[in-house]
Amino acid sequence: KFFLFSGEPSNFDPTFNGPIKNRSCTDIICCILFMLVLVGYMIVGILAWLYGDPRQVLYPRNSTGMFCGIGPNSDKPNVFYFDILKCATATNIMAAALNGLQCPTVQLCVNQCPSDFWVLPVTAYLPGALPQNFFKQEYCVPSLNLSTTALTVSQIKDKELCSYFYMPTAPGWFDAFIFLNRRSCSTGSTRPVLGVPFMFLRSVYTFYFSVYISIDFKNVLNKLLPVFFTGIWYCWNEYNTLKGSTVTFQDVGFTTNFNAYLQIKDTWLAFMIILCIVEGILLLTLIFLRTRILIAIAIIRESSKAVSYMMSTLFFPLVTFVLLLVCVSYWGITALYLATSGAPVFKVVALNASQGDCSGITGNQTCDPVTFNSSSYPTCPSARCMFINYNAEGLYQRNLFNLQIYNVVAFLWCINFVIALGQCTLAGAFASYYWAFSKPGDIPTFPLSQSFIRTLRYHVGSLAFGALILTLVQIVRIILEYLDHKFRAAQNPCARFVMCCLKCCFWCLEKFIKFINRNAYIMIAIYGKNFCVSAKNAFMLLMRNIVRVVVLDKVTDLLLFFGKLLVVGGVGVLAFYFFSGKIPVPSGSFQASKLNYYWMPIITVIVGSYLIAQGFFSVYSMCVDTLFLCFLEDLERHDGSVEKPYFMSKNLMKILHKKNKKPKGQKD
């Protein structure tokens, strides 16, 4: 049954000596579909660019709908709310009528936010009090001139022409969703942090190549065994010392003092048992899987040689990063323009519903801020024409949600395609290294460029097919997350259990599809078959060597983890000593004492070094996977005879006790 499930071994092909040159286009239908989606994606972007206005989210608006920070208000980048408490929909009827889309209070564009406390004093209500002696012109509506107005202080306050109180505030980002641009005056303060010097990141990338070659998994295992043995001896010694002690865990109870638990003999007994189990697992692993571990180590070393012969592969993640950056930027800009499509909508709002009779103002009457006259509402002196939201009428506006969904789906498909393109390109380059009989003499010229051109010319459809399958699974996961977030409060325990199981299953399915796609792209790069055939052949080949696959996967994961930990940890420690001022800078161009919070640049450098490490080690991981599949194919196709010589390295042949036979008359 397992043989039927894993398929038959590959047969010898005398014409095969590496990635096939004579190949044809694969998965043409999916290629055409992907091109049509890209054309539609560009059309959506053009429509969004024509109808959208990013100023609506990049700059705030005042009550009349004018932008702050540009145009006539270029010197007034902040929005000042007369009474921000009116924004609460729970306590303000008008705010509830507007569905929280706008605050029923006057909003002004101001140059600076208030820096002190001020409340309109009682003396301002005395007869003869002049408004200009109490109010500030910058916190009054532009149509009101305090020096020439005939209105009294009470009239100005009742009509909300000037703010009658304010407090120390600082610029901050206020509203959410549509009004992400609201750079409003809110309480709180900010402290500047100096820009992070990214000179570390430039040197980090060149540091990696020397790191991963120095890591030897076999030496790591050989060092771990005596370490665990020493730990077992130490635990036994401590346990023997405390053997006469009668203190138990019940006597100590729960405490944050860990040293108290070290005075209990059962603690050292537990440590000793755990170390013995781990030591036993390591010993059994080395005894029964010794050959497979040696094969994994040999393939990892061979991958190091492959990368050293093709150093251009180290920089290929930069190409993938640029393409991913283009996709993310296009998606973000398109989403921004789609979200700001539509003309602004203004409605009549009662700023002070308790003054006069404002029952006729429901927040549904539209208006024009240019021609609006408050005298049309004589019973409600606080009536104003205010900006509310953006027009959602018309065919284009009614389908904005559908266009946003299309934007997300096309974005995921493009992202997965770019990743697939990078994997297939690297696989083709590393496969050309393995199938070169005499290394490095038989390695093709510019193998990475040839593989990239070959992939774009013949296999766009296959890569798009694999990316589409992964995109569909990701969309289902997004829908499940959305449903779980929406109905979390209303779900019973049974529904939550089912939802959790569904999320877990689709997470596992996504991981499995990524694994299948990765190996399918390797087979596509080598043999040039379509996606389904390549995925089937790769899966069958791996199933016929399942134990080797598991061992290599775990060894590689541990090796890459050690590499990332060493690099990121080393850069993090260096950044800490640099930004904390413990490493002096001779030139004096950077002074650590001026940093208000030096942990922020340290975290930035650590994150940057991790991203660089992730990009580099992804190349190394792809090399290991490619050479491993080639190695398995080599074992099935060849037997070491003169007609069927092995392409693997001498180290691998030595581990497997195999060798290539020499032609008659030729000496070893």
Task: Explain what the structure shows.
With 668 residues, this protein is mostly helical. It is extended, with a radius of gyration of 35 Å. The chain is built from 21 helices and 8 strands. The strands form 4 sheets. Strands 1-2 form a two-stranded antiparallel sheet. Strands 3-4 form a two-stranded antiparallel ribbon. It has helices at residues 2-6, 28-51, 55-58, 93-97, 153-158, 199-214, 217-241, 249-252, 258-261, 265-288, 290-309, 316-339, 395-398, 400-434, 447-458, 460-486, 493-527, 531-543, 546-579, 599-637, 650-655, and strands at residues 78-81, 107-110, 118-119, 165-166, 170-173, 183-186, 344-350, 383-390. Helix 6 packs parallel to helix 20 (599-637). Helices cover 55% and strands 5% of the residues. Mean pLDDT is 78; it is low at 174-182 and 187-217. InterPro entries: Choline_transptr-like. It is a multi-pass membrane protein. Belongs to the CTL (choline transporter-like) family. It is found in: Apical cell membrane; Cell membrane; Membrane. Choline transporter.
Mean pLDDT figure: 78
What's the overall geometry? Answer: extended
Specify the helix fraction band.
Answer: 40-55%
Main sheet specs: 2 strands, antiparallel
- Class inferred from helices and paired strands: mainly alpha
**Per DSSP, what share of the residues sits in E-state strands of 2 or more residues?**
5-15%
- First-residue to last-residue Cα separation: 43 Å
The strands making up the biggest β-sheet line up spatially as 1-2
**What is the gyration radius calculated from CA atoms?**
35 Å
Uncertain segments: 174-182, 187-217
Annotation, overall tally of beta strands: 8
